[in-house]
Amino acid sequence: MSGLGQSGVAAVKWSAASTAIRFVLQMAAQVVLARTLGPDVFGIFAIGMVVLTFAAFFSSFGFSANLVLNKTIDEQDIRFAWTWQVIVGFITMLVVYSLAPSLAAYFREPRAQPVIEWLSITCLLAAAATPASTLLQRDLNFRAIGLIQVGSYAAGYLVVGVPMALAGGGAYSLVAAWLVQAAVVLVASYALKPYRLRPLLWYQGGAAVVGVGRSVFLTNIVNWCLNNMDRILIGRLLNAYALGLYNVAYNVATMPNTLLLGALQPAFLSAGSRLQDERQRLGSAYLQMVAVILVVAVPAFIFLALLAPDLVHLVYGPKWVGAAWVLEVLFLAMPAYVIWGVSTPVLWNTGRRNHEFALQLPVLAGGALAFYLFAGHGIRTVAVIAALLLVVRGAIISFAALQALQLSWKALLPDALRGLVLGALCVATVLAAQHSVAWLSVPALSLAVSSLAQFGVLVLLLVVQPRILGEQTTAMIIRFFPLLAGFLNRGNPRPLTGAASEQRF
Q: Taken in order 275, 408, 291, 450, is the CA torsion positive or negative?
């Protein structure tokens, strides 16, 4: 058995590469924009984005989900999906535009009204782009998807957004960047994956498409509520300044998460759809992915949490220091978020498409109550609640995925232990390094010394005990970086190879 095979691995590689490039571009653009615009402007834009992301679920509804989940599709499937994406996207755009004054009034921020009005256009642009983007994902053409993502972000933010912000464009610089990005995605995705633009209102397979779309829609709504309740109530109970601090911290915390999840989830969903009848191979691939997250992501995010205060002070400047503590807390919850992200495709690929929605309803109810009662206490309290919700969601959905694959949670214990040991070592190393230079009060020096110390300890650990990463993680690393095979296999009586890891992925 060859796991997901070369196509799955290539998909992950391209997805990871493009996501890494986009991460660098995003980090650079966001730093310039944050320093130029400040928390208040970012808070106003965040209100618009909360509205937009909610509206996006209505504009898409999930009509295109069938294009990636089904084993086979035809021209009618594509035409039907495109027709209804455009229709619903247009209607959603009009509704959001008309409700902009009321939405701005709810958040007690009249400056948000024109932001919401302009952003409503992306409801139509994003909906119209979805079929072509989904078809590229189905083909595992993550090279094209990566180029579109990187190119659209560069066009939106580096070419338009940053120059406008430096010229005094305020919140409109962020709005313009988002609109340009959406427009480029629409044009580029269709250019790379063209299809006949002939409307089709109904056909024999329409009922099945709507059924899948309904499941996608309900799931997306629940996920949106869980991901945005914190910002909704901050915007309502506090102010734009507090929302700006929190939103930037949240975005920074999820950037590394995006690097991992953005690389793994789409490829796993697309490739996994081809293994719907081969549960053992799908399970092997899933266990290996989770092992990598536990062993690599857990200590990595602990490391980032420890560096958060210095990172915020150095990169974003003194006016953003209020975001540091929030960033620390959210970083610690990100591994659970990544595990949640790679677990959801398992439920969909094993025919349990409604499970993600149903299992998260109790979490949504508890989270809504907690945010309502305590959001007014400040962004630190909100961050703690948000982090706990991410951990609970990750645990629930991962256990459901294991059950769907007929696997025991005990299979993850060795790698979980490795992650905790490496995390504890990370804490000791970074705290010792920070303490050694604390008397100088230089954030840049603290960051540099901590990073070098952590890198040195990691290399030394791998030299002394190369098997510390475990078989699953080592196999995955070798699969993607074969040049490291000799170094990681030292002292291993059963050397792992690329072929060995391919058995799982």
A: positive
